[in-house]
Fold each of these.
Amino acid sequence: MTMRMASPLWIAALLAAILGALLTAAVFGFFYAYASSVMFGFDTLSEQNAVIAMQGVNATVRNRYFAPAFFGPAPMLLLAAGLAYLADARQAGFAFAAAAVVYMFAAFLPTMLVNVPMNDALARVSARGSDVAQVWAEYSPRWQWWNLARTVASGFSVLLALFGLVSLGASARTTSRVPASMGRLEAARVAS
């Protein structure tokens, strides 16, 4: 077995895929932290304090550190898919494209269509209002359900991206095949 020289397209696909997988893993970790601890912690607070805490998080989450992890996975994975396809690593390209589609439709869009509007509505709630207990009781379980859905989806996207990376690595290997009718010296000369 010999390694062929990696083409510039293959190298570009690898770099885009690594970045896409890292960004997807980062957003998966962010969602997972909320699913595994943050919201459980907020639910132990008084409803007033839970609303104040969530409002504080929502007011600060849109920042330069979060933006690449949230907005970057789909475009980067689609770029990796296209480059892998052009580099004749179609299985890897398919995996990267699938990872991008899963992230876009099962994590990104639900966030924009459900979680963000819920957060915007919560931002307008007065934590000192008489209905704060009811507001939190309606907000928290629904928000957590959608957060769990996007956590699972982004985790699946990470797995697809990793499968794509493995497939991309496998596409760089070639097996030297020599017809059985050739002698050893002739096979050695052809292989070199």
Amino acid sequence: MTDLLRLSRLAFVDSYEEGGTLIVRAKSVRHHEPYGCCLLFSFSKMGTKAVRYCDHAIQGQPVWLEIKRQRFRCNSCGKVGYEVLPDIDTERRITKRFREHLQKDAIKYPFTMAAEINGVHETLVRRVFDEHAKRVLGKYKPMLPRVLGMDEIYLHKKPRFVIGDIDQGYESTGAYFEHEALHPSHWMPLPPTPTE
């Protein structure tokens, strides 16, 4: 039988269609108990609950995984928790691989287009992108010159702006209306200023 899920910690049970959406029933290969709320780590099983999580579309058809999650009760404090699903982002109710796919699509396309392509709401794409951007750009610190000079000029019959590091004597040119990235290869030394 073909592994429809391709998730190592979940096993395929069966699938059916519901209103144009493919519902794939799955179960955990091994139940992972919730992280302990108390020092004893003593849990009792307390039934299951079917929960749906969004996954990649298959041939343009939206896919939801329906997983019967095991509930556990802590024997010392009575707190109820669900089993841990390593392949699932339980906060957003999507698979982790789908979350990574949304992160890439949010960079490639506008948020509305990425949402439409993947069959999800735009706010989900925005939240996933914001979380990804905070993680990736959290330690990024732009290096800016102490004195930045800016001017506009026509070069090759196109309006351009010129920015330069006045202290170090470097300048860079870029187009006004084109989204050209200012890469360090664009930087060139300024001609020496004439002394009087």
Amino acid sequence: MYEKIWLAGLGAYARYEKFGTEGKKLFEELVEDGEDVRDRANDKVDDLKQKAQERIGETVGRLKEVLRISKGEEEKTDIQALSEQIEELSKAVKALSAAEKKAAPRKPVANPAVKAAVKPAEKKAS
């Protein structure tokens, strides 16, 4: 196809030379038509390029949203896992504290009311 277009251009130039003034007019019209086709093709290319850039931008935007959501979910999962570990550690500390309290010998606590009751009885016995 490209070769035929090239050959048509060469043929138009050959007629230009053959027909003199009339050929020159025809050649100039063909050049103008060619410029119009080129400009329309450039406009189409620019439109397609703009549409492609918009679609790429939209796709990148969606990907960023998806990645943020995924990252957010990972952060939530990490925070949840850390919270569970903290709860487990708290339970372990409480269990150790309870076991330590049971294992430690207790000193008798002096109750002032019991002491007061025992002292008068000791005095009467003497």
Amino acid sequence: MGVAQTQPPSAPHLYPQALQLKLYQAFIFSIPILFSIILFLLFYLFYLKRRASNLSNSRPVLPTTTTFNPTPCQLSLKREITDKLPTVLFDEELRTRDTQ
């Protein structure tokens, strides 16, 4: 009846409370930094690296000989464009005055 139940002493903490708090704060502070570093690495690997490799692979190869024969459609397009452009008149007299 009157048996006193003694509780075993609580297990001592492995580290003091102040050190545990500092560890916890450092861990909580480092999580967003690590997360942002991982995001930047993923962005670099999947976007910038792929974009750079696509640009280097898609460089146009210039032909050594030009065998371009414009079709009549292209000639008429060229005429339409030149008709829309303003005409600049060049005065030879002004040129000779400028060079003197």
